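Work Package 4 report. The design task specified in the project plan requires that, given a folded chain encoded as structure tokens, an amino acid be chosen for each position. We show below one input record used in the internal validation round.
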């Protein structure tokens, strides 16, 4: 059901809903690498002198007054943890019938960082507006969706492999993980680049997550690695789907020795069934 919304109706969030969101932000699960992540619900009107509600996002977001702003303490794997938890927040908000949009680039980072009192040890990798989606998508939203190809996703054979990168997964290989892999495919990613590649081990249910970077993309924003955030998002979708289908497991560091690995494929983590 989730898709990015950049135009919002003027209907405000009522107090009870704001409290539910606040409670959700305080009761998030542990992220896979146990990073230090926190989120806050921020009323943009209070932070931009009530004036230009469009200002804080370069005009990308229209009509939203509230934002969820997240900060994470700088550390290895902080971006994956942030992506994982913020996507849990976004799916929770979707469940409440609210519209959201991951913003990792088009927002005034320092102003939003100030709005939650981020310290020098923290970084604000991304934010999302939250509110009721407008009845129609605005022109900016439509242009961004068109240029990112937001409706489409990569084919299964491009994303999922068996026992190494030389064998694209076929339907029969995918069967034990069908829902979880579908959930990964549907996940949002920066510029819709979908940098995740998953390698399934045969017979034991282990799934290895790799990042294949899009050229030049790691240099766009210095302090924030958007494609590592994407990896955290994929892990969130995978784990939630596994939990939904009562297939428990955990994240572990088990870098495999496969053929076809290169400096382009960065190992992130493995899902190990229990
Ligand atoms: C980490 C991350 C950063 C993003 N940053 C922006 C952004 O700065 N501005 C924007 O308009 N959309 C941004 N997006 C939204 C993506 O363009 C969008 O998720 C993708 O095109 C897929 O479309 P969908 O979310 O509607 O499925 C970002 C998404 C992710 C996951």
């Amino acid at each position: 059901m989730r898709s990015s919304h950049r135009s919002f109706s003027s209907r405000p969030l009522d107090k009870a809903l704001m409290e539910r969101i606040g409670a959700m932000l305080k009761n998030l699960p542990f992220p896979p690498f146990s990073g230090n992540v926190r989120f806050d619900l921020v009323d943009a009107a209070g932070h931009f002198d009530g004036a230009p509600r469009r200002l804080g996002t370069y005009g990308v977001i229209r009509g939203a007054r509230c934002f969820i702003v997240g900060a994470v303490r700088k550390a290895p794997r902080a971006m994956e943890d942030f992506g994982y938890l913020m996507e849990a927040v976004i799916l929770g908000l979707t469940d409440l019938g609210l519209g959201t949009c991951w913003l990792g680039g088009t927002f005034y980072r320092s102003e939003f960082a100030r709005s939650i009192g981020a310290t020098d040890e923290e970084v604000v990798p991304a934010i999302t507006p939250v509110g009721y989606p407008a009845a129609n998508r605005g022109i900016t939203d439509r242009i961004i969706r068109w240029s990112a190809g937001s409706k489409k996703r990569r084919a299964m054979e491009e994303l999922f492999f068996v026992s190494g990168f030389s064998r694209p997964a076929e339907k029969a290989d995918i069967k034990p993980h069908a829902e979880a892999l579908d959930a990964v495919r549907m996940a949002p990613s920066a510029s819709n680049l979908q940098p995740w590649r998953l390698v399934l081990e045969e017979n034991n249910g282990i799934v290895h997550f790799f990042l294949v970077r899009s050229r030049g993309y790691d240099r766009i924003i210095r302090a924030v690695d958007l494609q590592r955030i994407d990896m955290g998002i994929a892990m969130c979708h995978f784990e939630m789907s596994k939990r939904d289908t009562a297939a428990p497991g955990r994240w572990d560091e088990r870098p495999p020795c496969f053929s076809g690995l290169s400096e382009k494929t960065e190992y992130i983590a493995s899902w190990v069934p229990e």
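The chain has two domains: 15-143, 156-273. Validation will be extended to a larger panel in the next phase.
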